[in-house]
Specification:
13-stranded mixed beta sheet; 10 helices; 17-stranded antiparallel beta sheet; 797 residues; alpha+beta
């Protein structure tokens, strides 16, 4: 959840992720100290830039009217009475192919009434929180209570001067600031974007009036992470924004730093340095932001739905996030009778207006300001903590004599006076009918997610890209450290570097180089990819070590720890040199299509060094030239940790050359709670081949991902297989304790009915965070009877 919130805030504000030791202080826009480095910055709009900004005259006219309408306030809009529903979903996937688990979901509903010259009254009517991996109702209830006490629990559809393009309670800023997300409608945007008119449509109102809409396609001049690409629709008559679908031009790389009270980077202790190393590389993207307005009273365009979707990527995990909001209106411009809301401004004055003596020179002025800032921040933090504690205690005390808690505060930098009412009895929020029956329901009708996805698909396809920017490239991303380091019995210790350069037009060039210190062989990959954040097409040339395994990821960092410390290298490896074409879909069910032509060679074992048991032998791979294609589909159903859930993995492959063969396999995992605190899971899998299958493309069983208690061994392989795994678990808060038993067979495809006694193992497992972290103690039953311990990530259950 933290990573997703971090990605959202960084990308919307265009800053750098920081672990800060100082309070955030809202200051005047006038630069006053060494913070001038954070002062607004924008490129000048030269005559040449202005002349090239618009591809047609209609685009210039529409843009100018939209810019005026963005900052204009329609004084005839006096009030509205709305219902606002919001859902935030955060998921986590471990590894490239791990399923995305729902780790946090928050839903809320509120009646929001705004009246000009009075303010906003928010009556929270529904709310709930789910944190499935923890399985703790108390934790979820505490999280709900914290969220409803948050003054920002419900967005405000509209207030005078609000920003109509971004999803947040922000005031519209007149000018572009390239330190933030560059607004394509702000003054100065012509230096960053080009505009072209697109499609048009019209519809007739009941009174006979025809509303005409026109699309304005927005493309950045240069591919950077603080500019967007997308489609904006406007009312031709008024210039009002009606619909918007856009995304970042390229992913953003984030850095974790620690600053002192003066805002300067400081040396960090060992634990902080380790944390920074473990989360890097940390990248994020916003794949779709969709805003849609509805026409009310025949003249007022007010928000109808908003959604934002993106993800953050760290060393071990990816964190997809989606925020959905829907608005409905009981009345617009009808008398509400709200009284003016008054806020105690002395309690929330966050402006620092101290000015140094004019006689000071530059160095003395900087020293004066930095010293004053340290003192101010310390005093401000003490006052803020006191106020926040008092408000919370005061809010709770209201429930001693009333059924509702009331908080009055300013909202956001726009200083919107907001009076928020929250029921003291949280059960009323949990039982409200303003939200879907279950927090795990799709909720498409309530939150409008289906329509948002259609708008994003239409506007943000592969063709919607920034231009090719070879002459003005952003800084490349360089990846080192744990994410590029591994250990196995072929390479020994192996490390390398990744260089990734965004080129514009959705293109990126990537180079990977690594060296194994046991085999003393360099590996490299060169690739060119094009992506729209949901689909990627990649051409890749390589010479590399390849894992023949169909389960697990033996060549990643976490698997390498097991190889180094316990001698559990469960991969079977061969070398490959060749080229491949990938087409992948990363959104929803993951689909991967690969066409390849490569020379495959044997990869002999080169080391026995580890801190545990003796390494098992590697396979003797056949030297062969292989040309073919493969298809993989990874789908999941269900998000309720105690409800029906399914995870499927379908794999198809065919190749010709020195060996002509075909492979097909399907894995299905089902899980469901069968009693109050008892869960069950069942995995069934099977696969077969056709033709002459080389040793490196056989099926291999044994190890933590297949038959637990049995070692991964070349003796347990064949041209066909079947496998089943069953678990019965007792769930408690934060942990699931399971008894499991596994059966499987791998052998000659001609002898499906003559498999004899199958491989088997049984044991006890301890699963944390819905299987993201797993520890097993397994005893082999047949053929080996060893006791094996395993600690790993991304278990199916």
């Amino acid at each position: 959840m933290l990573s997703a919130f971090l990605a959202l805030s960084i990308l919307m504000q265009g800053g750098t992720a920081q672990q800060s030791q100082r309070p955030t202080v809202v200051r005047d826009s006038t630069p006053r100290d060494s913070a001038t480095r954070n002062a607004p910055r924008r490129l000048p709009v030269t005559a040449a830039l202005l002349a090239s900004a618009f591809r047609d005259d209609a685009a210039r006219d529409l843009f100018n009217r939209a810019r005026v309408a963005r900052l204009a306030q329609d004084s005839s809009l006096q009030s509205y009475d709305s219902k606002v529903r919001q859902r935030l979903s955060v998921l986590v996937g471990i590894g490239k192919l791990g399923r995305d688990r729902l780790v946090f979901r928050q839903e809320s509903a509120a009646r929001v009434r705004w009246q000009r010259d009075a303010g906003v009254r928010v009556d929270v009517t529904a709310g709930r929180v789910a944190i499935p991996p923890l399985g703790s109702p108390k934790t979820e209830r505490d999280a709900l209570e914290e969220s409803v006490l948050d003054n920002d629990v419900s967005p405000i559809p509209y207030f005078p001067g609000s920003e109509n393009l971004l999803i947040s309670d922000l005031a519209a800023k007149t000018d572009v600031n390239e330190r933030e997300l560059v607004n394509p409608l702000a003054r100065g945007a012509e230096a960053y974007y080009t505009f072209r008119t697109g499609d048009s449509l019209s519809f007739r109102l009941p009174d006979g009036h025809v509303v005409q809409l026109r699309e304005l396609e927005v493309r950045p001049r240069v591919a950077k992470p603080n500019v967007v690409v997308g489609s904006l629709w406007f009312d031709l008559a008024t210039g009002q924004l009606v619909r918007a679908a856009y995304r970042l031009a390229i992913p953003a790389e984030m850095k974790v730093t620690v600053t002192n009270d003066a805002g300067d980077s400081v040396k960090t202790p060992f634990i902080a340095k380790l944390l920074k190393t473990m989360v890097q590389p940390l990248t994020a993207d916003l794949s779709a932001i969709v805003v849609e307005y509805g026409l009310y009273g025949g003249r007022f365009w007010l928000p109808r739905s908003q959604s934002i979707e993106g993800s953050a990527q760290a060393l071990l995990a990816r964190v997809p996030m989606k925020l959905e909001t829907s608005f409905s209106y009981a009345s617009v411009n009808e008398p509400l009778g709200l009284t003016a809301i008054h806020v105690d401004t002395t309690a929330f004055d966050e402006q620092w207006r101290a000015m140094p003596p004019l006689a000071l020179d530059s160095a003395a002025r900087k020293h004066w300001l930095d010293s004053a800032r340290v003192a101010y921040n310390a005093a401000f933090k003490a006052r803020r903590d006191s106020i926040d504690k008092g408000l919370k205690v005061g809010s709770m005390r209201q429930c001693d004599t009333a059924a509702t808690r009331v908080e009055i505060r300013y909202r956001s930098e726009a200083k919107i006076p907001v009076e928020m009412h929250v029921p003291c009895d949280l059960n009323k929020l949990l039982a409200s009918s303003d939200l879907p029956p279950s927090i795990f329901d799709p909720g498409e009708d309530v939150f409008g997610s289906a329509e948002a996805e259609r708008l994003a698909a239409a506007a943000l396809g592969m063709g919607a890209q920034a231009p090719l920017s070879l002459g003005n490239l952003p800084a490349p991303r360089i990846q080192l450290g744990p994410s590029m380091t591994r250990y196995n019995r072929v390479e020994g210790f192996s490390t390398g570097a990744l260089w990734d350069q965004q080129l514009g037009a959705g293109l990126s060039a990537t180079a990977i180089g690594r060296f194994g210190f046991a085999d003393k062989r360099p590996n490299f990959e060169l690739s060119l990819a094009r992506s729209d954040f949901t689909k990627t097409i990649r051409v890749n040339g390589y010479t590399r070590l390849v894992s023949a395994n169909d389960w697990g990821s033996p060549l990643n960092f976490s698997s390498s720890l097991g190889a180094l410390f316990f001698g559990r290298d469960e991969g079977f490896y061969y070398r490959a040199t060749g080229a491949e074409l990938f087409w992948t879909v990363e959104r929803g069910p993951r689909v991967e299509v690969r066409a390849f032509s490569e020379q495959q060679r044997n990869a002999p074992q080169n080391t026995t060094a580890n801190l545990g048991a003796t390494f098992i032998p590697n396979i003797e791979s056949a030297n062969a030239t292989s040309t073919g294609a493969s298809f993989r589909y990874l789908g999941s159903f269900g998000q309720d940790i105690r409800g029906w859930r399914a995870f499927t993995d379908l794999r198809l492959e065919g190749a010709g050359g020195d060996s002509s063969y075909g492979r097909a396999a399907l894995d299905v995992t089902l899980s469901k709670a069968i009693l109050r605190r008892v869960d069950a899971a069942l995995t069934v899998a099977g696969g077969t081949t056709t033709g002459h299958v080389p040793a490196q493309r056989r099926w291999f069983l044994g190890g933590t991902q297949t038959i637990r208690g049995q070692a991964a061994d070349t003796a347990q392989s064949g041209t066909a297989f079947w496998m089943t795994r069953m678990e019965l678990a007792r769930s408690s808060e934060f942990m699931r304790t399971a008894l499991f038993g596994d059966l499987g067979w791998a052998g000659n495809r001609e002898k499906w009915g003559e498999f004899g006694r199958p491989l088997s193992g049984a044991g006890v497992g301890f699963s944390f965070l819905d299987g993201m972290i797993r520890f097993d103690a397994a005893r082999g039953i047949y053929p080996r009877k060893d006791v094996r311990f395993a600690f790993y990530f991304n278990a199916p259950f």
